[in-house]
C-alpha cells in the first residue's frame, strides 16, 4: 500500500512564497513507511497532490501522481485495481492513451469518460484524490469496506486535506475525521455521497433468503484469491493455522502455477506465522504448511519484545482500541521480518469472521435476524478494526496485505445467503462458519484435512500465545495505579477507559495525537469477545466480563486459560517478570463444552 496526501485550495501568502510546498513535503514524509520506493508531488495552483509509493505493479514506470493524456486530470492513488486490464481495453477502444503499466492509471481516464460516477466500476481496494484542472474541482473516494485507510480534514484557511494516515494532517486541520468507506467526496457537490449500496448495507432491510449453495460460495472465494495474485514483486501468505488463513493458503497453492507471478517468482508459495514459543498458532500453521507444501517461515517473539513495540504500534495504527493493539503488535513484528526477506505483498484472511459470524459470541445469537444484523454491523465497522490493523501494521514496514474475503463480489455472494445456514447449530453438527467450512469440504480433492477445516476459531491475539494478553495486562497494571484508573472519567471523558490496559494505551495515543478530533476517530462502547455493543445484550452474564479476548466467551471457547508447558517456560515467565503464568486474579476459568453432534473430523479440545 502507498501513502497519499492532498492539500486542496490553500491560496495564501505562504503558498505563493513556496513555504506551503515545503510543508506538504514535510508532512508527506510522515507517510514514507507506506511507500519507501519513490516519492512524487504535483502542484497545480493552490492544490498539492503527493504520493509515497510502494511499487507492486509496474515498479519501473508507475510512479505517481498519474495523469490523463493532456495532464488536465491528476490523480494520486493508494490501492490495487484488479480489473484494470479489462478497463484498459474498454478505454483504449474509446481512444484513450496510457503512459504507464500501473493498474491505477485507469482512474484518470475513467473520470474523463464517465465523470464522477465511475467509482463502482473499479474492482479492487483504493483511496484516491483526483484533481480536474480544466473545471477547477476535485473528488476523492474510498473503497467499499475501507481496506485502505483514509482521513479528511479542513484547515482554517478553507483548505481540504486528505491523507492515508492521520499523522500527516492532524497538526494542520481545525477538524478532521475518518473518510467513510464506500463514499466519495466531491467539491462540485460540496460533500459526501455513498457510491457503495449493496442490499445488505441497510441492516433493517429484508433478511436474505437465498438457499446456501456451497459450490457457488467456493467459486466466489477462489475467484477473489486469484485476483489478488496480480503482482510484479515477491509475495506470500500469512498463515496462522486457523480456518481463514489456511483456506487462503490452500486456494493460493492450488491456483498459483498458472499465474504471471509464478512464472517470475516460482510456484513454491512462501507462508509466514508469528507467535510466542509453543503458541497454538505456530503449531497449527506448521501443520497446514507441511500439508500444503509451502516454504514456511516461523517467527518467534517474547512478551517483552511485544511490550517494547507498543508505542510504535500505537503510533502507526493510530488507535487506542484494546483489541486492535493486542492483535496489531505481533503482526507489526512479523511484518518487519517478512520485509527483511525481500517480500513486498502478503495475502491474509481478515473479514471472514464478520461475514460468517465466526466470532465465538455468535453462538449466543438469539435468532437469524439478529445474527444477520450483527454481521452487517461488524462488516461496516471493519475499517476501524481488522482492516485498520491489517493495513497499518504491515504498511509500517512497506508491506502490502491483500484480503480476498473482503472482495466485493464475494461479499455479495456470502451476504445473500439465508442467515439460518450461518447460525451455530450443534444439534445439526454446525459450528461457527459452517457454510464456509462445508464449501471447501471436498472428499475427492480436499483443500485441507478435516480436523483443520473444522478447527475452532482462535482470535489472533489469543492464538499467538495466551500469555501475550496476560503479559500486556500485567505490564499495564505496573504503569497505571488504582488512583489513576479511578479518575479516568475526568482525564478521558470520551471513551473513558475501564481497565488499566485501556488506560495505558490511551495515555500513549494522546501523547502522539492529543487533538480532540483524533480521539473521536477511535470507536468505543462495551464489547465481549469482539462483539458490537448491541450483541452484548444477547447474554446477561457478558456485561460483567467485558473483554475483547475470545476467551471471554465463557462456555464457548474450548481452550483453557492455562498455557502449555513450553509456552510457560519460554514465554512470559522467562522473558517478562510481569507476565503471570496462570489465569489473572478474579477471572473465571471457562468450562470445556462438547457439541451434541460434530461433523466428521472435528476435534473438540479439552
Automatic annotation (TrEMBL):
Top enzyme class: ligase
Residues covered by region (Disordered): 563-606
UniProt cross-references to InterPro entries, sorted A to Z: Asn_synth_AEB, Asn_synthase, Asn_Synthetase, AsnB_N, GATase_2_dom, Ntn_hydrolases_N, Rossmann-like_a/b/a_fold
Residue numbers binding L-glutamine: 103
Residue numbers binding ATP: 238, 274, 348-349
EC number(s) stated in the UniProt entry for this protein: 6.3.5.4
Function: Essential for nitrogen assimilation, distribution and remobilization within the plant via the phloem.
Protein name: Asparagine synthetase [glutamine-hydrolyzing]
